[in-house]
Write a structure and sequence with these properties.
The protein is an alpha+beta fold. The protein is built from nine helices and 23 strands. The chain has helices at residues 2-22, 24-38, 67-76, 93-99, 105-113, 115-122, 190-196, 201-210, 421-446, and strands spanning 80-86, 128-134, 139-146, 154-162, 165-173, 176-185, 225-235, 238-252, 255-262, 271-273, 293-296, 300-302, 309-311, 315-318, 324-326, 331-339, 343-349, 354-361, 363-364, 371-372, 377-380, 391-398, 401-403. The strands form five sheets. Strands 11, 14, 16, 17, 18, 20, 22 and 23 form an eight-stranded antiparallel beta sheet that branches. A hairpin with a 2-residue loop joins β22 and β23. α7 packs across α8. The longest helix has 26 residues, at 421-446. It is extended and about 100 Å long. The two termini are 63 Å apart.
Length: 447
């Protein structure tokens, strides 16, 4: 009897399923019509009441693992600990390994006695070190990666435990290009916000330069926000260097400012543009020194050495000795050497009989007659000549006459040509999508 009921149920269910597969639209229409006319829909059960179905209990005997086997399994289980830190100028083998949680006298002795390890781990502070250790804090592997000076690749140094002891290996490899999205909200200053967002200083400086004609980064308001997409160069997944800003956006004072990097083709000169194709490139950068403050403006003042009231024909930027000084525009080096109270000075000749001068330098990195480009390093901050402390004295001259450097002409570049418009539009659309994604990080953190 029960077998017959089950067979009937299976046949009915099969026919219902076939009907639904064969006439889905018609059945949907019928159901919709019923809902509209009756307001409610009852679905009849196609089988017997669940309480009438037979209940069958199945018992199965199982044999648990013995306590000894479970205990042995736990004893045999092992895991690896990963720790990362940054080298310090005061580091020793003991101090570094202790900070990484390593308690391994043999590893400490090997690192201390290896000249390769000393050169890789202690030659320069700020290198990222990664350690792999056992659960007993014994060293399994120690690795460091860094970019050598003047090298496009990177070096990888590894100390690894083998059955016969520790071995050290130094390798060269190529950096992997990538990109990173980041965003931030201004609370005190742009550079404080970029630090909070873990954006490199070099990228923050680019942001200030890109929007110099639209946004005064020294007078940003609390609540202003920004987003940026920039290049990264990675070694084994670790970012070792940042590159060019690819796109950026500022929301300041209720206005939105966007920038997109566009290079028509490899080898051709690229520049930053607004999404509508207008150029953002200015004839001159806003400052010849990154991360500095104006200590004396273009105005009458008491000369600190001559003790007389006279016109200050430039702007002084306070910065530590050795800080890089860059040319604010394209041009040719007109003079590079020493001049009386200026000390070490570089004078750059630009178009339209314009000149910029960079004085009190601790060193000069260019020669007279050399062609230089906007942003190129030409020397370093110092206190040579008539200077009471390290700073850069910066002048702007037109036809030999001193002009206020703060009022340097902000001549824009040429807009995107019609021929380049389709390629630019594709990049601009992608840039807007990425910047929106970067801004969503701010929104998510705020929520």
């Amino acid at each position: 009897m029960i077998n017959g009921i089950l067979a009937a149920e299976e046949l009915l269910a099969s026919r219902v399923a076939y009907t639904f597969r064969t006439y889905p639209k018609q059945i949907t229409a019928v159901i919709a019509a019923a809902l509209l006319s009756a307001g409610t829909l009852a679905v009849a059960s196609l089988g017997p009441d669940a309480s009438d179905l037979p209940v069958q209990q199945v018992l199965e005997a199982t044999a648990p693992l013995s306590f000894a086997e479970q205990s042995q399994s736990l004893e045999n289980f092992s895991f690896t600990l990963f720790r990362t830190d940054i080298t310090r100028s005061s580091d020793t083998a003991e101090a570094l390994l202790k900070r990484l949680g390593i308690s391994d006298p043999a590893a400490t002795a090997f690192v201390r006695g290896s000249s390769d390890a000393r050169n890789a781990l202690f030659a320069r502070a700020g290198r990222t070190i990664t350690a792999e250790a056992t659960q007993e804090n014994q060293l399994k592997k120690l690795s460091a990666r860094w970019i050598p000076d003047g090298d496009g690749g990177f070096k990888r140094f590894v100390v690894e435990r083998t059955p016969s002891g520790f071995v050290a290996l130094t390798e060269r490899d190529t950096l992997t290009p990538g990109s990173r999205l980041a965003s931030g909200t201004i609370r005190t200053s742009l550079f404080a916000a970029t630090d909070d967002a873990r954006i490199p200083d070099a990228v923050a400086s680019q942001l200030a330069d890109i929007f110099a004609g639209d946004v005064d980064v020294r007078s940003l308001r609390k609540g202003d926000r920004f987003a940026v997409v920039y290049e990264t160069f990675e070694a084994d997944g670790q970012a070792l260097r940042s590159g060019r800003v690819l796109s950026a956006e500022f929301e300041s004072g209720g206005k939105v400012h966007q920038a997109v990097w566009f290079q028509p083709a490899a080898g051709q000169k690229g520049s930053y543009y607004r999404p509508n194709g207008d150029s953002l490139r200015k004839a001159y950068l806003s400052s010849p020194v990154e991360f500095s403050r104006v200590s004396s403006g273009f105005a009458m003042r008491m000369h600190p050495i001559l003790n007389s009231w006279r016109q200050h024909n430039g702007i002084d930027f306070a910065a530590p000795t050795g800080t890089a000084v860059r040319s604010v525009g394209d041009g040719t080096v007109d003079f590079a050497g020493t001049q009386s109270g200026y000390g070490n000075i570089v004078i750059v000749k630009h178009r339209n009989n314009q000149q910029t001068a960079y004085a009190h330098l601790s060193r000069v990195d260019v020669k007279a007659g050399e062609s230089i480009s906007q942003g190129q390093t030409i020397g370093a901050v110092g206190s040579t000549g008539w200077a009471t402390g390290p700073h850069l004295h910066f002048e702007f001259r037109v036809n030999g006459e001193y002009q206020d450097p703060a009022a340097i002409a902000q001549e824009g570049g040429a807009p995107i040509t019609a021929a380049m418009r389709p390629a630019f539009e594709r990049i601009a659309v992608g840039a807007r999508t990425e910047l929106a994604a970067a801004f969503s990080v701010i929104q998510a953190s705020a929520d």
